[in-house]
Design a protein that fits this description.
Elements (H helix, E strand, L loop, with lengths): L6 H13 L16 H12 L4 H8 L3 H4 L4 H8 L1 H9 L9 H11 L5 H24 L11 H16 L5 H14 L12
Length: 195
């Protein structure tokens, strides 16, 4: 019964909601539940026609990295294929300094399977869109992040360079457009209109 279409994704969202319970997005003065982010990631992946196991991994993409969930628990509940995708998109060692963790993640990107690369891109697209939405509706997003605007945008640009070495795909184009949108949010959180 649990193998009926749609149930894998429903289960993934339910468990993501439980594991991320109490976590919120980094919006000043707003308690936006963290599940908003996995939902955004899954929405992007679904629009691009990815399979239900990839969507489930998108819903769970931060649980190993940011919650008590382990690879073994994710594998037991959702199968090894979903768990492997989640592991591919998780930072390997959260004890390392921020810069080293982000560089290691970027260095691993080219060797990931395409489905994991797609989850990574959808994750970053949603983060970039969150920057724009935060600036428009809640306040300065850059002040909420561990590093400032320029360092964040450089990190996104470095991933774009790696993604552009892959075969062409509309998801990569969407990622590039999301960087441009977030780049229009100034250091102080104001949105710079295009000329």
């Amino acid at each position: 019964m649990l193998d009926a279409p749609g149930l894998l994704l429903k289960r993934a969202f339910d468990h993501a909601a439980l594991w991320h319970a109490g976590q919120v997005r980094k919006y000043p003065g707003a308690q936006v539940p963290y599940l908003s982010h996995p939902a955004g990631v899954v929405s992007i992946l679904a629009r691009h026609g990815f399979s239900e196991p990839v969507l489930a991994a998108g819903a769970l993409h931060d649980v190993i990295e940011d919650t008590v969930a382990t690879f073994e628990v994710v594998s037991a509940r959702f199968g090894p294929a979903v768990a492997e995708l989640v592991r591919h998109v998780s930072e390997a060692d959260k004890s390392l300094p921020w810069e080293q963790r982000k560089q290691d993640y970027l260095d691993r990107f080219p060797a990931k399977p395409w489905e994991a690369q797609a989850i990574t891109l959808a994750d970053k697209i949603d983060n970039l869109r969150s920057i724009v939405v935060c600036a428009a509706e809640f306040g300065n997003p850059w002040a909420q992040l561990k590093r400032g605007r320029e360092i964040q945008l450089q990190r996104y640009d470095a991933l774009l360079t790696a993604a552009q070495a892959l075969p062409a795909h509309p998801l990569i184009d969407e990622y590039a457009a999301a960087i441009v949108q977030a780049g229009r949010v100034g250091d102080d959180g104001t949105i710079i209109t295009a000329p």
